[in-house]
Sequence to fold (283 residues):
Amino acid sequence: MPIGGTGKLRVTFYGVRGSTPCHGDETRRYGGNTSCVVIAAPGENPLILDLGTGLRYFARTLPHGKPANVNVLLSHLHWDHIQGLPFFAPLLHEETKVHVVAPKQDDCDLEEAMRRAITPPIFPVELNALAATITYQPVTDETFKIDGFVVTSRAVPHVGPTLGFRVQWQDKVVTYIPDHQQPLNGAVEFTDGALDLMRDADLLIHDAQYLPEEFPRRSNWGHCTTEFAVQGARRSNVKHLALFHHDPGRTDDSLDRIHDALDAETGKSMRLSTAREGLTLEI
Ligand SMILES: [Zn+2]
Ligand SMILES: [Zn+2]
Fold:
């Protein structure tokens, strides 16, 4: 397709929660599944951002009992970002292909790390015993192609090797930074890598785990404030910011209040969404 074509990207949220799944009346509207977002573009295989528990619900949108061919950009290997993988129903089909791009690990092979996470006695079966073929591509700071998507990966401050991704398809850019350690002193300063990822993005999906008043008590837990996300988007000329990776203790009503306050502050300069399960954004 020519650059600047009229195709649209559809970005759908299947899990928006950080740290651990949560459930109950207070989190029903935004949802309690952990990180999983799917980018769909005409003619391309689905591009999955992280393998949290929301992945199981994405699988429900696929033809039942049929193989799947999907690509995954995995930000890092923390539990909340991989827990959905062994429950992805198409893994039971031998023609299913799952290609996982993830950060190169410091001290072990990426595939080995995934096998060690999903193995008895922690999980009933070995990941390799499932019928599907799973392939791994360890990356660092790189630019590469996945089908028709051009992907840029950059290391992002968090806990352990962690990447953010910038996904370009035709002239549209989606940036995904789900877990982002703000400087410990609370400064609103960004690494060059993070700025590379966010610059002029049509949509930025960004960590929004804490409120500014909560940050001092959890400053070294690997995350940032809602304000940090807004400032990053603003400095990077982002058109649309989706607040993401909500704290599991955050209720629907409090997410509404946070959204309304920030929306009033950002005004017309930028579109603001608070990610919830089932939300699809078209760009
Ligand atoms: Zn996380
Ligand atoms: Zn993490």
Q: What stands out?
A: Residues 76, 78, 158, 179, 222 surround zinc ion (ligand 2) (CB under 6 Å).
